Hints:
Layout: H1 2-25, E1 26-30, E2 45-49, H2 51-55, E3 63-67, E4 74-81, E5 86-90, E6 93-96, E7 99-100, E8 118-120, E9 125-129, H3 141-144, E10 147-148, E11 152-161
Antiparallel strand pairs: 1-2, 2-11, 3-4, 3-11, 4-9, 5-6, 5-8, 6-7, 9-10
EC number: 3.4.21.89
Membrane topology: Single-pass type II membrane protein
Protein name: Signal peptidase I
Amino acid sequence: MKKYYHDFKVILFAFLLALFLRFFVFNVVIVNQTSMYPTLHPKDVILSSSFYKFKKEYKRGDIIVFKSKDENKLLVKRIIGLPKDKIEIIDGSVYVNGNRLNEYYLVDGSYTYSDKEIFSLSEDELFVLGDNRTLNGSYDSRNFGPIKTDTVVSKPFFRIFPLNSKKFINGG
């Protein structure tokens, strides 16, 4: 009987540790869309740090995982606008607070389509875009508007799969 009690404690501890790690340290995300192409591809499996949502140190250019209010699922996008920023999309280019954004992560010749030109963010909002800026290439803030900072779940840092791909994301 003692052996079963010991085994139960070990299994319970392992389960609780796994839950803690999953919700408070990191999570595994499978990319299901092409919206972050060429940075991320469909079926990429990435490790994502949950500490990011607690630190709230958002940086322009960071790739984040957040909970979509419209689709009730997790989305992966890049932060373009920070709280209180003014985002303008003019002639296919993105401007933040009047300055053209240098988007080194985009494919040369990319054109950012948008029906709306100006987005003003409140103190608890972020503006996110996918790296695939082709027409209908990414469902992002151009479609659903800014996201609330409290919807951020994590920040990807390492690609697990495919094995032969570049491993570190967001500078690791």
